[in-house]
Write a structure and sequence with these properties.
The protein has 115 residues and is an alpha/beta fold. It is built from two helices and eight strands, in the order E-H-E-E-E-E-H-E-E-E. It has a single domain, classed as 2,3-Dihydroxybiphenyl 1,2-Dioxygenase, domain 1, CATH 3.10.180.10. The N and C termini lie far apart (29 Å). This is VOC family protein.
């Protein structure tokens, strides 16, 4: 039977080493850990849902709209942090709740302060 639990969210990336470094900088963690099968890096996350960067057969970003959001309790601080990163796009804070950005491969990400 299928459970109501997400095991992992995959993000397509061009090059796994540079993507690992960028996401580590975004999340302020060390860019360490095994790169499985030469193309997968499981981002160390809090909670049970995994985030996996995958460079196998990259055909482009998942570029429609963000499919998840990173949580923050300090939206302005998070926005300032992202402004200092190399990003392809960074929105203003919207509705005092969230902002969006694009990673170096064009994948849309969201940062939100929601309950």
């Amino acid at each position: 039977m299928i459970t109501r639990s997400i095991g992992a969210v995959f993000i397509p990336v061009r090059e796994i080493i540079s993507a690992r470094a960028w996401y580590a900088r975004l999340l302020e963690i060390a860019p360490i850990g095994e790169i499985a099968h030469g193309h997968l890096w499981r981002v160390p996350m809090v909670g049970e849902t995994n985030l996996v960067l995958d460079s196998k057969a990259f055909v482009g970003p998942q570029d429609a709209k963000p499919i998840f959001y990173f949580k923050t309790a300090n939206l302005k601080g998070a926005h300032d942090h992202c402004r200092a990163l190399p990003v392809l796009a960074l929105s203003a804070i919207r509705d005092d709740v969230f902002f969006t950005l694009k990673d170096l491969d064009g994948n849309p990400l969201m940062i939100a302060d929601v309950i």
